[in-house]
Amino acid sequence: xxxxxxxxxxxxxxxxxxxxAQTQKSLPIIDIEQQPQVAGFYQxxxxxxxxxxxxxxxxxxxPTLFQNISQDKVHExxxxxxxxxxxxxxxxxxxxxxxxxxxxxxxxSGTADCFGAHLGSVLKNLKAxxxxxxxxxxxxxxxxxxxxxCGVSKNxxxxxxxxxxxxxxxEADYWLNPKQSKSIPKDKLENYFGTVKTIKAAIAPxxxxxxxxxxxxxxxxKGFEVINTSGHTxxxxxxxxKTTDQDIVFIGDIVHSHTVQFDRPETAIxxxxxxxxxxQTRLKQFSDxxxxxxxxxxxxxxxPGIGHIYSxxxxxxxxxxxxxxx
Length: 326
Ligand SMILES: [Zn+2]
What we know:
The protein is of the alpha+beta class and 326 residues long. The protein has one domain: 4-Layer Sandwich (Metallo-beta-lactamase, Chain A). Helices cover 29% and strands 25% of the residues. It has eight helices and 18 strands. The strands form four sheets. The protein has a seven-stranded mixed beta sheet with strand order 1-2-4-5-6-9-10. A seven-stranded mixed beta sheet has the order 11-12-13-14-16-17-18. α3 links the parallel β5 and β6. The longest helix has 25 residues. It is globular, with a radius of gyration of 23 Å. The N terminus is likely disordered. It binds zinc ion. Zinc ion binds next to α4.
């Protein structure tokens, strides 16, 4: 009996491998590096508002950008999260379009052509999602780094001609006040001036039409509350919107990695202008968001970047993305 079974299973094995070889020949191999995996927009209903996450693209960071942590520990965490390290630490660049019913608000705008062809898809994905750029009336920028501001224009022409841009006073002062350069360390000056040039080019068409405005703590813009989350940049702000029964915070760059900086939230990143303050801000916001079950939307967490923060011990955190819904 045993012998008989063995004979049958062997013949099945031979048959299936022959079938497999035939199938392989007739099917084209898809180049997943070239073909987008999913549509670059994702729509999420939250109470009375509709949020459209817009993918700008996928980026890879060097693991050496993380600070106050050994490289061995970085790799250990990445391994724990099964993060492919072949090209570096994967991160998304996302922007968010919020339809409040009375306003169409874009939170951050992606990179346009400031960083290369693998990024810069926000405008294309906004159109694909069913909206027109002319319908956007407000742009809230969490800060003025080029991966958040470049997407507002291209070659001196506004991508969102009817929108007014809002930035915090501290952020505008830091990048746009000529006196500021005196306080920048000498070794950082070249980089600073390069970034200033990029920012000025992006916002120029809005400034020319007086569609560039500055806010301060306590102001409300189209129903959005502003929250000071400085550290990553001196005038970094998050935005909170309360709907009928729920609310959401667009957190901006208080975090850049859903692996290393959730596991070890005290880890700063090279891009932070004030690393210590950036860490303090993350610890405070993460703790509050985890306690309150706050829905958040983040530009550098895996697309669509909407979800919740969980902590079992109040020390380390886990990213809980919203569940995909068709
Ligand atoms: Zn950023």
